[in-house]
Each structure stands twice: as C-alpha cells, then as structure tokens.
C-alpha cells in the first residue's frame, strides 16, 4: 500500500483538544515577522544545496576521523567546519600529539584543508567549569540563565541569559571560575509538543509524521531494540510517558466519533525514555524512511546512515507541523538547558538557526528528525531528534490548512548517538 499524508481543512475542537483562546493570543503576538526563502539561505560560493552537501559530507568524514584518533587525548578542545572555505579547524590545548598529527594531517586522504588552532583550554577543563556552574545555579537561585555550552574554540564557556547581558555580568559568582565566561542574550528553550494538530500515517510508520502522546508530536527515526530486535520509533521524551498509549489520528484534524470518543487508534506504547537527554522509544512498526518536503508532501527520504552535526554545518529538520526546514546553521554543541529555578534539565543539546525571521521549527515538531540530505539523492543521514525551539517568529509562512501557533527561529536537537545510547537501540538503515 502506498503511504500518504492526508490534510483536510476542518474546524478544530476548542475545549476538547486545546484552549483556542490561548493559542489565538499567542499567534497574534508573533505577527509581522517575515519568513526567509530557503534559496536565500545558501552561503556564498555555492550554486546549490547539493553542492554544499557534497562538500559538507567530506568535511564531516574528516571530523569523525579526528574525533576517533583524538579520543582519550587531554588536549582536544573542539572542531568547527566551514563548508564555504572547505576548511576544518581543530582546536587543541597544548602540543598536538605526534600520533594525532600523523593520522589527521599527514595521512589525511580527503581534499580538506585542516587547520590546527591553539586553544586556551581543553574540552575537559571547560566541561569541569560547566559542571561547577550547573551546581552553583540552583544555590544562587539564578532565574536569568537559560542555557550553557562550551565554546568550540576552547576559549571558555558561553552562558545565555533572558535578561539584559549587563545585569548578569554584575553577578560576581560567574567571575569565580577558572575559565572565562562569555555572556549572550538567549531565550529559554520551549518544547515543541503541540496540544493538537494534524496528519495521519499508516504502518509501517515513517519519521516526521503526527502522533499523539503528551499532546501532539512528531515521529523521529526508525530503530531496532538491542534486546528484542523489534522495530521501534525514536522520539522526544517530553512527548510520551513510559507505558502510556501512543495514538495516530484517522483524520486531520481529529474528529469526534458518534460515541463521543476521538477518531484515533493505538499504534504502540512508549517503553523507555531519558528526560535529561529528551529521548524516548516507542514500540511500534517502523520503516527506515522519513517524510521530505512541505507539510502536505508524501515524498519519501530513505535513511542511509547517521552523522554527527559539527558547529558550522547545515542541517534540515522535518516535523509534522511545519514540514521540512533546511539551511539551518549549527551554532553551538554540547549545550545544557537551564530551568527557571536554575537547575539543568537537558544535556548535550545542539543549536541550529535559520536566517533572521526564518522558520526552523514549530509547535508539534518535537521528536521529529534532524538530518543531512545527501547530494543528488532523496536519501538522508540521521543527525538527531528535535527537542525544542528558541526565538519566536511568525507562523504565517507555513503552508497548511491549519498552521501551527508557535514557531521558532532556532532549533535545539539531541544528537542521534545520544538518543541511541540512552534508548539502547540501533538506527534502522534502508537496504
């Protein structure tokens, strides 16, 4: 049977599914922001995204090799890629070991310029400082800090605040750490589960489709459980409860049956979740495929493998509410999300952004796939799972009979390897 997405313009059920007045108020507050055409996001020097993706895939192969040979070395600080210049920067504290230099530079078979840059601090030193900050924030009851991340160049720690930077700069305890702390303004992470939305899917299920758990979310990538070898679906932890039913709608939007129940059906149950890495697995039939294109598209992308998204790389995100959004530039990795009580609650997040005013993710996209599209192909490589959004923008550019109400310019996602590790699963690869 051919798979499809179904969208029908029907009125939503206020009171049954969500509070419509609250959503309308939120939508009105975002008016006036213009979305950016994906073609306008293409960096200078490239004629197409295919050309950029080919260059980026080579850079990522080089970066993966560097991480492998640097494992266990104390001086490693970070990696940043710059596709426009075909350059990879390896930040290293102290002298680069001869074994690493030999493998990374002298034996490098790839057509990539690798630059070794001196770093002020190692990743280990920076992570130690981050751990100390995380422990201190709840004691100080600091409500201003929203997230923390290591500086990829090894210069220190980046701390985001939702208050004016000058106010947080006056906080003496941030001056007590052994590495510098750099302050930036940044909103608090908003999970992108939606109280109601659209789309139907059929078995075996693909990533990027609508399902209902704790509200409405998106499926991520198909995987296989380590122990049972059964097919499962990866998604975000905040979308589900362990042991609770996971439903897929029989129509879009959901309707009431004559007996007063909603017209949805159970497709499985969530059986494992890790809130600190916002990762979960659902026991349900799944296929190594994701939906590509806009909200109403039935285009298929085969999952050809996985990849790590380094700072400087470009990714795509695909959720049931906003469809596919590409050209998202990874600006930070290893970030920690901080709640309003100053407590860390999500770790090792990556942050990617569209151009100013552009759409990266929307309410209802949580759990959906983050990926690299392969050049001259509809196949993709899995990079992570959507966790939330930052920096509100208008949803007016989303082509849907019932556009989402909450849209964001920045995307926070969980690296795929973290998702696989905490759920004890293996990614399903298309033959």
Features:
alpha+beta; Thrombin, subunit H; 3 domains; six-stranded antiparallel beta barrel; six-stranded antiparallel beta sheet
By helix and strand content, what is the structural category?
Answer: alpha+beta
Distance between the termini: 19 Å
CATH topology of the largest domain, what is it called? Answer: Thrombin, subunit H
- What is the approximate shape? globular
Strand content: 35-45%
Number of helices: 6
Quick one: biggest sheet? 6 strands, antiparallel, barrel
The CATH superfamily label of the largest domain reads: Trypsin-like serine proteases
The main sheet orders its strands as 18-19-20-24-23-22
In total, how many beta strands?
25
Helix content: 10-25%
What is the CATH-assigned architecture of the largest domain?
Beta Barrel
Q: What is the typical, i.e. mean, pLDDT?
A: 82
Name the CATH class of the largest domain: Mainly Beta
What does this structure look like?
This protein is an alpha+beta fold. The chain has three domains: 20-39 and 190-427, Trypsin-like serine proteases (Thrombin, subunit H, Beta Barrel); 46-118; 126-185. The protein has six helices and 25 strands. The protein has helices at 20-29, 49-70, 98-106, 123-140, 165-169, 416-423, and strands at residues 76-82, 87-92, 113-118, 145-150, 157-161, 181-185, 190-191, 205-207, 210-213, 215-218, 222-225, 231-235, 245-249, 264-274, 279-283, 286-292, 299-306, 314-319, 323-338, 344-353, 361-362, 369-373, 380-393, 407-415, 425-427. It has a six-stranded antiparallel β-barrel with strand order 18-19-20-24-23-22. A six-stranded antiparallel β-sheet has the order 13-14-15-12-11-25, with helices on one face. Strands 1-2-3 form a three-stranded mixed β-sheet. Helix 2 packs antiparallel against helix 3. The protein starts with 19 loop residues before the first helix and ends with a strand.
């Amino acid at each position: 049977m051919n798979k499809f997405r179904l969208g029908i313009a029907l009125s939503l059920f206020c009171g049954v599914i969500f509070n419509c007045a609250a959503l309308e108020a939120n939508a009105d507050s975002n008016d006036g922001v213009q979305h950016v055409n994906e073609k306008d996001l293409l960096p200078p020097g490239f004629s197409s995204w295919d050309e950029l993706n080919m260059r980026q895939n080579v850079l990522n192969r080089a970066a993966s090799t560097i991480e492998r040979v640097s494992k266990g070395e104390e001086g490693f600080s970070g990696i940043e890629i710059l596709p426009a210049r075909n350059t990879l920067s390896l930040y290293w504290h102290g002298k680069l070991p001869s074994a690493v230099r030999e493998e990374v530079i002298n034996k490098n078979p790839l057509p990539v310029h690798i630059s070794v840059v001196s770093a002020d601090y190692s990743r280990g030193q920076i992570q130690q400082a981050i751990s100390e900050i995380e422990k201190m924030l709840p004691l100080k009851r600091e409500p201003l800090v929203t997230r923390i991340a290591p500086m990829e160049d090894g210069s220190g720690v980046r701390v985001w605040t939702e208050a004016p930077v000058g106010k947080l700069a006056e906080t003496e305890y941030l001056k007590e750490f052994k590495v510098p702390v750099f302050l930036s303004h940044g909103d608090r992470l908003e999970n992108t589960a939606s109280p109601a939305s659209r789309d139907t899917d059929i078995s075996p299920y693909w990533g990027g489709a609508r399902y209902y758990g704790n509200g409405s979310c998106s499926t991520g990538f198909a995987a296989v459980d380590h122990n049972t070898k059964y097919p499962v679906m990866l998604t975000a932890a905040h979308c589900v409860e362990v042991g609770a039913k996971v439903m897929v709608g029989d129509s879009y939007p959901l309707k009431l049956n004559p007996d007063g129940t909603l017209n949805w059906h159970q497709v499985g149950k969530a059986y494992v979740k890790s809130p600190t890495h916002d990762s979960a697995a659902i026991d349900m039939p799944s296929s190594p495929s994701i939906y590509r294109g806009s909200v109403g598209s039935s285009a298929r992308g085969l999952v050809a493998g996985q990849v790590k998204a380094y700072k400087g790389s470009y990714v795509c995100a695909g959720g049931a509410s906003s469809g596919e959004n590409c050209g998202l530039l990874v600006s930070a990795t290893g970030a920690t999300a901080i709640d309003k009580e100053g407590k860390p609650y999500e770790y090792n997040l990556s942050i990617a952004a569209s151009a100013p005013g552009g759409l990266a993710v929307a309410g209802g996209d949580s759990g959906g796939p983050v990926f690299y599209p392969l050049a001259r192909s509809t196949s993709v490589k899995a990079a992570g799972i959507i966790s939330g959004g930052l920096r509100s923008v208008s949803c007016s550019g989303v082509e849907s009979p019932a556009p989402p109400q909450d849209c964001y310019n920045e995307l926070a996602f969980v690296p795929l390897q973290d998702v696989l590790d905490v759920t004890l699963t293996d990614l399903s690869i298309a033959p």
